[in-house]
Amino acid sequence: MRMLASSVLVMESFVMGFALLLAMKDHSSSVLIVGGVIAIACLLAPGFLKTKFGWALGWILQAAMIAYGFAVTSMFLVGAIFLGLWIAAILVGKKGEAARAALLAAGPPNA
User: Fold this and answer.
1) Predicted confidence (pLDDT) at residue 111 exceeds the cutoff of 90
2) Structural domain tally of the chain?
């Protein structure tokens, strides 16, 4: 689950960097600073995913990506897509961990 969620967060940081390029033309420096903070937080958040704080930070970053749509309109759509990927990473990751736990509980196969 952590691996999938980490991948989503790192890809979000790249997308946020591209959104900053779009925002440079029309917006003030404060909008760029907020976008930079979001991009850096997306890069740092995977390191915190071992704790509940990291998962809460991940959810906050999903909301921040969508909210950045007020600066760069296309981020509403892109943020919603990444929110879907974040939810999918959590759901698929839980199923994968449950399958792995069942395999480990069954023990080694008899040859």
Assistant:
1) no
2) 1
Helix residue spans in 27-74 (DSSP H) = 29-44, 52-67
pLDDT tens for each residue of 41-63: 999 999 999 999 999 999 999 99
Is 57 within 8 Å of 66 (Cβ atoms)?
A: no
The answer to the question of residue 109 being in a domain is no
pLDDT of residue 25: 84
Amino acid letter, residue 8: V
Entry pTM: 0.84
How many C-beta neighbours within 10 Å does residue 97 have?
12
Max Cα–Cα distance, the chain, nearest Å: 67
Structural domain includes residue 72: yes
